[in-house]
Amino acid sequence: MVLRIALWLCVAWPTMAQIKVVVFPFHNTTQAQKNDWLSHGFAEALNTELAKDTALDVIDRTDVLAEIKSKGWKQADIKDEAKAMAVARSLEANRMVYGVFDVKDSSIKVLTKFFDLRTGVADGKNTYIGEGKFTTNNVYAMYGQITNKALVSFGRKTIDEIGGPTKGAINVDAYEPYIKGILKYDESSTVDDYNKAIEMLTQAATIDTGFALAYAGIAKAYAKIARIQDVSGKLTEKEESYNKALEAGLRAVRIDKRLAVGWTALALTYRELKDRDKLIEAARKAVQIRVSQYDAYDMIADAFSPSFFPQYKIIDSSIFYRKKSVTYNTKFASGFRGLGGDYMDKGDYKNAEQAFQKAVSINPKHAGSRDRLGQIYFAQGDYIKAKDNFSEAIRLDAKTPFGYTHLADVLYMEGKYAEAIAAYDSALHHNPKFAMAHYGLAWTLLSSKQRALRDSVRALAHATQAVEISGQKNAAFLSMLAEAQFANGNKEKAIETIGLARALDSANTDYELAETRYAGKEKSGDYAYAMRRGQMFWKQGRGADGVKEFEEANKLSPKNVHVLLGLARYYDQDKQYKKAFDHYFLARACDWDKKYVKQIQERMNALEKHSK
């Protein structure tokens, strides 16, 4: 299977579509709210049919709406053709479909224009004007007629020549709840909201059991619910939701094997079910059907991302496919967040920052984008900018456990331990099952320099929660639990727990050192806490702060080879070679077990000229 996937990845991809199309929701001239769904109904039907032509890059309806909003306009403002063209051009489109409709009594009138944005002129020869009874057959016929006019205007083949309308998209009775369902999906952020969307989409699928798009929408909504349940620690409910997502996604592609969004919904589900081979297979089918299916490339990128499949981590491959996703859709904020995460995993903070900033510029009101931008500033030791972005994330979403937890992380490093505890508590108030907040709070309660704030019993409770929520699969959480057990005087339990952490992450030498410390005669972990803070400062580029912590560790545990070796290596890396040599010398003298003596001596020999 690995060889097959590798061979597929080497296949040349089709070149990007040259015709980039925006289809706006049709303007409802009667402004009767009961017919508003039809505004999006026309747009969604045209998007679906036009996307069958692989030479057309049809911009997603949600991205069009987001761009309208980013300009401070409402959908009704787009009745102004000049404003519509401004939005289309900002989306880098070169063709635009603009329509209006009027429903009175039982009749419907539709006017549709097709603009070449390079000239700003509508194609007068192919303007569509339709009128008739407001019936299932007539509205369906209009979808097809408008699509054909668009294709002719764009110099393409008609839908009759490229395969006809998508099965299941012809029933107006089903299409109304479908459009209402996807509109509800677009504005959803909670389980209740997504369930309401599912209810509408299920109504559509019940009316027309061959409605592939409705099943694809159901699959996406259940996948979103499952992600929320995962973060909330509701593991049983999460599995049920993913199974429902899988069932709906499979049904969508069984009905219509040429439905790119159906395969993309399946890829999303397989990603969360950790089935990497099927994820890649589904996403591959999506982009073969529609080369510009940008979110499918995003799924492929996740197949190489350590966030989802650490054992298959190839960050450069993840970056390659992520770039494809944001090239096909330059307004894909989620893709830029993923790209920023890839660069961050690679240690390329400059490009990570640019990607996160792009995500924020696309949607300044998205709390997740602000949170990720804050993380890159925190990783670089810029606490002011980090706090600004985490605070903005909280302002945008007052219930986000991520914003509060990451803000608390910064406050801890600034030595504002009481404020950090309060922020972790706020995160857990909004989501009692947020493992990272339990982990951070446990660390703060164990290691606060303000001893009055220390509470090893409470730390143990929170560390236990973090481990239980993660299903004992997170080595860092197990390590924190071991530290809390040691602080509470249970050395044997601490040794057992750190052993579990080592089994999960055998490359982490800190776990081996912790095990040695627990088995020894030490009663306090204070010097180890100082070392950990120092390492965190150094990783963030705050060298002087890191040195202070290691010097504090040296006072708490004199002649400790690990403390001295840590200082020696820092000075060595910082090109302070005289200090490096002196600390290597001290470390060698304190290496009672002769474990590091060979590597120390080799480095001292290289630095000997700096010893005087």
Characterization of this structure:
This protein is an alpha/beta fold. Among the domains are: 19-165, Rossmann fold, CATH 3.40.50; 365-432, Tetratricopeptide repeat domain (Serine Threonine Protein Phosphatase 5, Tetratricopeptide repeat), CATH 1.25.40; 482-610, Tetratricopeptide repeat domain (Serine Threonine Protein Phosphatase 5, Tetratricopeptide repeat, Alpha Horseshoe), CATH 1.25.40. The protein is built from 30 helices and seven strands. Strands 1, 2, 3, 4, 5, 6 and 7 form a seven-stranded mixed sheet that branches. Helix 17 (367-379) packs antiparallel against helix 18 (383-396). The longest helix is centred in the middle third of the chain and has 21 residues, at 235-255. It is elongated.
CATH class of the domain at 19-165: Alpha Beta
Overall mean confidence score, pLDDT: 89
Question: Shape from CA axes?
Answer: elongated
Q: Report strand %.
A: 5-15%
Give the N-to-C terminal Cα separation: 59 Å
> Could you give me the name of the CATH homologous superfamily of the domain at 19-165?
ABC-type transport auxiliary lipoprotein component
Number of helical segments with 4 or more residues: 30
Structural class: alpha/beta
Question: Fraction of residues in helices?
Answer: 55-70%
- Which architecture of the domain at 19-165 per CATH? 3-Layer(aba) Sandwich
Main sheet, how many strands, which sense, barrel?
A: 7 strands, mixed
